[in-house]
């Protein structure tokens, strides 16, 4: 990380105040109850000051939601340790992601689905403020962790399976895009109470479809 000047340090400090205040509201009242006024009151600044550092409320909620990913990242290395090959690791990465995302669907929706009107580099911006959140991430997972686009994250996770011949390169995009769409659709349905699933059921159903995608695309391709 490049050395920061005093202006950058001050900006990061101010953003941290507002992010921490937003996280408190999310934990105490829920993400749907976050308002600029509440954040400003907790942080001890006026509402107008927040807009010097965040474009809008969804931008601030996005940064605050990022703090909740740490639980997933802390669990991930151990979760995928049992994988016998890269393709199994890809599936386990999805399974771990599903378990944490369906436990906090509003938060993961804010990070990976909601329309923010901001650029992908915001993941990098967040980890400039909170570098300790990823300090224990294995180097092999870091490119995925730093990518904000969910489809690109999955494609990165699938790359080693391509290199080692577990799937064909021409199948990788199709497998990953379908897996991403399954998760996005299931999370949206679950979040909006369009399916009568428990958290355990929705994880199980989502992973059933993702496994079928991975296995069936390869199977039918190699038969052709």
From TrEMBL:
<keyword id="KW-0238">DNA-binding</keyword>
<dbReference type="InterPro" id="IPR001647">
    <property type="entry name" value="HTH_TetR"/>
</dbReference>
<dbReference type="Pfam" id="PF00440">
    <property type="entry name" value="TetR_N"/>
</dbReference>
<feature type="DNA-binding region" description="H-T-H motif">
    <location>
        <begin position="35"/>
        <end position="54"/>
    </location>
</feature>
<feature type="domain" description="HTH tetR-type">
    <location>
        <begin position="12"/>
        <end position="72"/>
    </location>
</feature>
<dbReference type="InterPro" id="IPR009057">
    <property type="entry name" value="Homeodomain-like_sf"/>
</dbReference>
<protein>
    <submittedName>
        <fullName>TetR/AcrR family transcriptional regulator</fullName>
    </submittedName>
</protein>
């Amino acid at each position: 990380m490049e050395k920061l000047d005093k202006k950058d340090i001050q900006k990061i400090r101010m953003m941290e105040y507002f992010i921490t205040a937003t996280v408190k509201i999310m934990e105490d009242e829920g993400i749907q109850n976050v308002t600029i006024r509440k954040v400003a009151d907790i942080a001890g600044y006026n509402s107008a000051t927040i807009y010097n550092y965040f474009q809008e409320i969804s931008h601030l909620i996005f940064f605050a939601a990022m703090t909740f990913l740490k639980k997933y990242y802390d669990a991930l290395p151990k979760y995928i340790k049992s994988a016998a090959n890269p393709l199994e690791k890809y599936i386990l990465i999805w399974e771990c992601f599903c378990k944490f995302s369906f436990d906090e669907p509003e938060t993961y929706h804010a990070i990976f689905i909601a329309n923010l009107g901001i650029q992908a580099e915001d993941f990098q911006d967040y980890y400039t403020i909170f570098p300790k959140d990823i300090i224990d991430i294995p180097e092999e997972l870091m490119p995925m962790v730093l990518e904000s686009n969910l489809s690109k994250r999955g494609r990165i996770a699938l790359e080693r399976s391509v290199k080692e011949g577990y799937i064909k390169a021409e199948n990788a995009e199709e497998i990953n895009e379908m897996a991403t769409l399954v998760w996005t659709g299931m999370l949206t349905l679950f979040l909006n109470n369009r399916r009568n699933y428990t958290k355990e059921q929705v994880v199980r159903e989502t992973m059933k479809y993702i496994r079928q995608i991975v296995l069936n695309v390869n199977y039918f391709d190699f038969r052709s």
